[in-house]
């Protein structure tokens, strides 16, 4: 029997279970395969990245990341440490045949060099846009991703919430296989993968939660909700019209880059992981930029995609080098050169502590400054303090002195502190200030705060805030300096968290800034009495990846109990309570209960308002918000009707949809072995 016939008779999931134990195949379908943790000795992992799948009638496996190894059933047995003879005997035993009649295959001809275009086209030929019926089905599977949903929070911290270039929603219900194994949970983030033609080519779902939570639940991070469409890349709106192309590892990373580069003549593709294949359209004759995660899988991705894009006719291929982070993490830092950044917080939260820490690090010898673990270039700093109640800058000078005691190699002369005259700045005064900064070669300008600097402006009116914001933005772009503007947060209302509404005033301020950072204080009882600040990047043109992070303020004292310095240490935040019970939550629950209790019946809008007021003990305005959020959560299961009578009052009817038969799913499209070329002898990225 030929080896290929032997391979076609065995079931790789069965072999893995027999050789490595039943726990090793947890979450693996015997018929369709799936993704599990690598069972090979010495390659253990915590997150599933070992794909098992059928290809060409035979079972195959591939490790995504790690050593990027792949193979067939025989290769898996060899990877367990068996000799070739032992592996063949075991393979024959699993196939249920005797090894005696096996005949070796004819020695194949020497393989030719890899054909990047042919290999890519073999994968791309299996891709296709969603049909009208599939699009209709997809929209029925999804509900609106509200700001307060877990998916909404995930999008907000990435800076992608509300962007029209990324079509998103949340799953209305759990997604399971016919055997009952859950693949995605209700409320998971779902986003369409638009192709180069602007049409959706796939629907991908991101299960939310920590890696440990997903592992305990037996869930993969990503699944495809509409099967049999492969793993297409995400393409930015208007793809094909740009002068250059950026290809990024990860679809959401691509969306973050697409948002940041919107209107700048750059097309963006976000690949389906390090093994993803880009579309070939729009590459010929253009400069192609590549970015991948700084790990072994990312390096292999750059090498493979670089060869492919060059073969597709790219005029030039350039690699973007990052700072050891995911693309979504490239710009999460405070004070990005050439841009304006907002830092918002309530009074007394620690804005001055943070911005003076950054300013002081810039006065240290070049190469020694570090802010929250990140290197900081040295340069002159201009600090405009208009936020002090007495018009003086004692708090600013106090914190600079504390940082000087902690890092004595800094130079106080590197920071110019300007104090308020009490009247703020007129547009002409602002122009003089920026000219001063330009003459002094300032690398950082801190305006503390917007309200104190421009008290004559109505911060709620767009036309009034635009002039100083445009001046600051133009100054940053022309000089290459970073501009940090501190501002205040509005008073927190009932049923909302601190900072939910962003900084005070017109959204035009945030729109003109490259990033908006919010600072709040963690209750001391949640962090064992320590002083911990919660830093959240609310807006960032390249988006943020990961949760908000904590900063512990460690105040140093001398033997006499006097202040002797301060340390700012990044730290973990306490886990957020999943079951927090606010008045807004209770109001929304009361509205949903009022609708579901009268399934099929008409419920007047006024009755829902009354239910929200009674259930959440909130005022009418908050009750109206609770009704809107409850209706958004129920989605198309609620129909709006108009009652007879004066004004045709609104009413709603709750009619839950009957769950439809689920299709099979493709769990993170596997990459055939032919897409992973053997390691090149030359240096990576040399084509």
What does this 3D model show about the protein?
- By secondary structure, the protein is α/β, with parallel strands linked by helices.
- The chain has four domains: 3-110, Zinc finger, CHC2-typedomain (DNA Primase, Chain A); 132-329, no CATH class; 340-540 and 548-571, 3-Layer(aba) Sandwich (Rossmann fold), CATH 3.40.50.300; 583-654, Orthogonal Bundle (Arc Repressor Mutant, subunit A), CATH 1.10.10.2220.
- It has 19 helices and 30 strands.
- A nine-stranded mixed β-sheet has the order 21-20-22-23-17-24-25-26-27, sandwiched between helices. A five-stranded antiparallel β-sheet has the order 5-6-9-10-11. It has a five-stranded mixed β-sheet with strand order 12-14-13-15-16.
- The longest helix is centred in the C-terminal third of the chain and has 18 residues, at 462-479.
- The two termini are 42 Å apart.
Please work out how many helical segments DSSP would assign: 19
Named CATH architecture of the largest domain: 3-Layer(aba) Sandwich
Using only C-alpha atoms, the radius of gyration works out to 29 Å
Q: Percent helix among the residues? A: 25-40%
Provide the structure class. Answer: alpha/beta
């Amino acid at each position: 029997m030929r080896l290929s016939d032997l391979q076609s008779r065995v079931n790789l999931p069965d072999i893995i279970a027999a050789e490595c134990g039943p726990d090793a195949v947890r979450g693996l379908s015997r018929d369709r395969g799936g993704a599990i943790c690598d069972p090979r000795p010495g390659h253990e992992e915590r997150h599933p990245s070992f794909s098992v799948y059928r290809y060409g009638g035979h079972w195959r496996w591939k490790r995504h990341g790690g050593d990027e190894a792949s193979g067939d059933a025989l290769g898996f047995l060899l990877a367990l440490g068996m000799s070739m003879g032992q592996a063949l005997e075991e393979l024959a035993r699993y196939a249920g045949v005797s090894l005696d009649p096996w005949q070796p295959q004819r020695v194949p001809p020497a393989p030719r060099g890899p054909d990047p275009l042919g290999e890519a086209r073999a994968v791309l030929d299996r891709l296709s846009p969603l049909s009208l019926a599939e699009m209709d089905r997809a929209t029925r599977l999804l509900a609106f991703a509200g700001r307060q949903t877990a998916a909404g929070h995930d999008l907000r911290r990435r800076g992608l919430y509300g962007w029209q270039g990324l079509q998103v929603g949340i799953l209305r219900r759990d997604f399971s296989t016919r055997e009952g194994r859950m693949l995605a949970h209700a409320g998971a983030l779902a986003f369409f993968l638009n192709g180069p033609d602007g049409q959706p080519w796939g629907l991908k779902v991101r299960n939310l939660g920590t890696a440990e939570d997903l592992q305990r639940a037996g869930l993969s991070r990503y699944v495809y909700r509409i099967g049999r469409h492969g793993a297409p890349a995400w393409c930015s709106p208007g793809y094909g019209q740009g002068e250059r192309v950026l290809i990024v590892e990860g679809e959401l990373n691509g969306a973050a880059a697409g948002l940041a580069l919107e209107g700048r003549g750059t097309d963006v593709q976000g690949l389906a992981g390090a093994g993803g294949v880009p579309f070939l359209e729009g590459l010929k004759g253009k400069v192609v930029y590549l970015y991948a995660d700084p790990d072994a899988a990312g390096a292999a991705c750059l090498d493979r995609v670089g060869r492919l894009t060059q073969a597709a006719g790219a005029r030039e291929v350039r690699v973007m080098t990052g700072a050891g982070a995911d693309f979504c993490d490239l710009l999460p830092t405070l004070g990005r050169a050439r841009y304006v950044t907002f830092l918002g917080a309530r009074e007394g939260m620690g804005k001055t502590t943070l911005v003076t820490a950054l300013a002081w690090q810039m006065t240290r010898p070049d190469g020694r400054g570090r802010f929250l673990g990140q290197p900081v270039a040295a340069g002159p700093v201009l600090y405009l303090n208009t936020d002090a109640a007495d018009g003086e800058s004692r708090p600013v000078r106090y914190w600079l002195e504390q940082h000087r005691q902690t890092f004595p190699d800094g130079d106080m002369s590197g920071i110019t502190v300007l104090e308020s005259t009490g009247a703020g700045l007129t547009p002409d005064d602002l122009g003089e200030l920026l000219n001063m900064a330009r003459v002094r070669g300032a690398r950082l300008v801190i305006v503390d705060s917007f309200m104190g600097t421009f008290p004559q402006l109505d911060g709620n009116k767009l036309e009034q805030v635009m002039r100083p914001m445009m001046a600051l933005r133009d100054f940053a772009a022309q000089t290459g300096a970073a501009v940090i503007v501190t501002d205040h947060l509005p008073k927190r209302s009932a049923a909302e968290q601190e900072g939910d509404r962003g900084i005070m005033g017109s959204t035009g301020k945030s729109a003109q800034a490259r990033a908006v950072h919010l600072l709040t204080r963690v209750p001391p009882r949640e962090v064992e009495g320590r002083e911990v600040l919660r830093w959240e990047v609310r807006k960032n043109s390249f988006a943020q990846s990961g949760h908000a992070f904590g900063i512990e303020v460690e105040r140093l004292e001398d033997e006499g109990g006097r202040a002797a310095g301060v340390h700012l240490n990044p730290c973990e935040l306490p886990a957020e309570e999943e079951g927090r019970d606010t008045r807004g939550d209770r109001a929304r629950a009361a509205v949903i209960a009022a609708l579901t209790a009268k399934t099929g019946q008409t419920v007047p809008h006024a009755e829902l308002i009354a239910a929200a007021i009674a259930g959440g003990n909130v005022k009418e305005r908050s009750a109206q918000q609770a009704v809107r959020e409850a209706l958004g959560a129920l989605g198309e299961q609620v129909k709006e009707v108009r009652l007879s009578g004066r004004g045709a009052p609104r009413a709603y009817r709750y009619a839950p949809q009957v769950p439809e038969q689920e299709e099979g799913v493709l769990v993170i499209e596997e990459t055939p072995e032919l897409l992973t070329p053997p390691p090149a002898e030359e240096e990576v990225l040399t084509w």
